[in-house]
């Protein structure tokens, strides 16, 4: 018996994006669930591109970092609550802050292999509605009570419950193997790479100014759908100057005698959702849709921050893009100079600056700051973990399309767990 011939690889087009404005946690979206936010973002795409027709897209891939057990398949639940055809298959994916971009990659790979013609990918996160677990001791007692075969045995198990058992298990924004928060890890890395407070504040101020300018010129008009009274990212402070940022107190105290990381040069805890529409060129052409850009390469890498020397900076928790990007460029036969635009997710200003320094140390040329995060990034938009990847893909694709000339853009996203997800978008 002969097997099927492997499919020829096709180009994957980025058609458009949709997201809700991002909100600071415990603010306007405090009562919104991941599913509600993701549905609003998805419906934005459905309305814009007429996706309500049966079978309009092959699948929906999404995820959330902070997820309730009731959202066991958040993507499928979202489809069922949206205006997308209810017969659209959907599944969840999770790679911490790389989730949104990894969802895009998963969907793109199916399109590239001819397994589907179009797909929607993205993510959602809410720190306001984070799942609280019952603590481990209470969980064991509840399971014991459930397994009990008589009323007496059940009551005996429940009688062991003490007030201390009622303390909930709150998810921490921390790495369980080191006990350090994301910010503390970034602070250790900042110290190792000699990243200064001034450089961090300058990057943060630029992010706010560029995001403000992009909103001002209407750049986000077809990328952001109003939600719960917000029309633009709530964290955006156009008046965030270097002078103002310099007055803020440090918040993560582990980067030496003079800690450098503040609420201004770190992302805030954020709620929001974002999605992008991907398709084959044929699908786009049949519908008269011009692709914004094409997703042409991607790479993931991981660092061993558990056994490596975290303090030397090389294997910092958020430093995997320092390995993923050189590997991706080598595989694609490209240099950093070949990129017109570079998008580095700003989890913390210090982590962006350490990543740029690490690329240089690995022989890549310095990134021209005029090409870096030109429409602002996470320090200004905020960072709802799983939504960030789709936000960046849509922003970069539109920036490339706006140039009305051939162009190439790079995406670099660090993720908890010591991972990095990176990609290349091109417009011929
Ligand atoms: C998870 C992954 O896979 C990878 C990643 O991306 S890692 C990143 C994950 N995200 C995080 O770890 C989130 C980190 N952030 C935090 O924990 C918190 O936001 C924080 C500890 C940094 C700050 O929390 P906070 O103290 O409650 O901040 P907040 O009250 O908003 O701001 C403190 C002050 O700075 C001011 N401020 C904040 N940003 C400012 C700005 N841009 N301009 C001017 N002032 C600013 C505020 O107005 C406030 O001033 P007052 O005290 O006078 O009111």
UniProtKB/TrEMBL annotation:
It comes from the Bacteria. Gene3D superfamilies: 3.40.47.10. Signal peptide: none annotated. Keywords: Acyltransferase, Transferase. Pfam families: Thiolase_C, Thiolase_N. InterPro entries: 3-ketoacyl-CoA_Thiolase, Thiolase, Thiolase-like, Thiolase_C, Thiolase_N. Residues 12-282 form the Thiolase N-terminal domain. Residues 309-427 form the Thiolase C-terminal domain. NCBIfam families: AcCoA-C-Actrans, PRK09268.1. Belongs to the thiolase-like superfamily. Thiolase family. This is Acetyl-CoA C-acetyltransferase. It comes from Streptomyces labedae. The lineage of its organism: Bacteria, Bacillati, Actinomycetota, Actinomycetes, Kitasatosporales.
């Amino acid at each position: 018996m002969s097997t099927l011939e492997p499919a020829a690889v096709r180009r994957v087009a980025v058609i458009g994006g949709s997201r809700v404005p991002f909100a600071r946690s415990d603010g306007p979206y405090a009562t919104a669930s991941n599913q509600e936010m993701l549905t609003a973002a998805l419906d934005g795409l459905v309305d814009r591109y007429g996706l309500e027709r049966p079978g309009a897209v092959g699948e929906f891939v999404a995820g959330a970092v902070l997820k309730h057990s009731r959202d066991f398949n958040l993507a499928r639940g979202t489809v069922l609550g949206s205006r997308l055809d209810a017969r659209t298959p959907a599944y969840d994916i999770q790679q911490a802050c790389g989730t949104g971009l990894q969802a895009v990659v998963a969907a793109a790979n199916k399109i590239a292999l001819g397994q589907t013609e179009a797909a929607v990918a993205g993510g959602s996160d809410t720190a306001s509605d984070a799942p609280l677990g019952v603590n481990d001791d209470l969980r064991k007692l509840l399971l014991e009570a459930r397994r009990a075969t008589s009323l007496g045995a059940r009551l005996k198990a429940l009688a062991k419950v003490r007030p201390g058992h009622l303390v909930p298990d709150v998810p921490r924004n921390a790495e369980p193997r080191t006990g350090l928060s994301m910010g503390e890890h970034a602070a250790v890395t900042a110290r190792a790479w000699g990243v200064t407070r001034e450089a961090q504040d300058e990057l943060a101020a630029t992010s706010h100014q560029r995001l403000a300018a992009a909103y001002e010129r209407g750049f986000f008009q077809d990328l952001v759908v109003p939600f719960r009274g917000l029309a633009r990212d709530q964290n955006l402070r156009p008046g965030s100057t270097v002078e103002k940022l310099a007055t803020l107190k440090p918040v993560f105290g582990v980067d030496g005698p003079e800690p450098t990381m503040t609420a201004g040069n770190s992302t805030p805890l954020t709620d929001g959702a974002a999605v992008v529409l991907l398709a084959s060129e044929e699908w786009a052409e049949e519908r008269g849709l011009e692709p914004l850009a094409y997703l042409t390469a991607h790479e993931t890498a991981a660092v061993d921050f558990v056994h490596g020397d975290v303090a030397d900076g090389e294997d910092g928790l958020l430093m995997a893009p320092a390995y993923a990007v050189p590997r991706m460029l080598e595989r694609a036969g490209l240099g950093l100079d070949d990129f017109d635009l570079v998008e580095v997710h700003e989890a913390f200003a210090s982590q962006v600056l350490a990543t740029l320094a690490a690329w240089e140390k690995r022989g890549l040329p310095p990134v021209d700051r005029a090409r870096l995060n030109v429409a602002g990034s996470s320090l200004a938009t905020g960072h709802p973990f799983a939504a960030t990847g789709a936000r960046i893909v849509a922003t970069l694709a539109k920036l490339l399309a706006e140039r009305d000339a051939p162009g190439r853009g790079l995406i670099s996203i660090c993720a908890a767990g010591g991972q990095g997800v990176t990609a290349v978008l091109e417009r011929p």
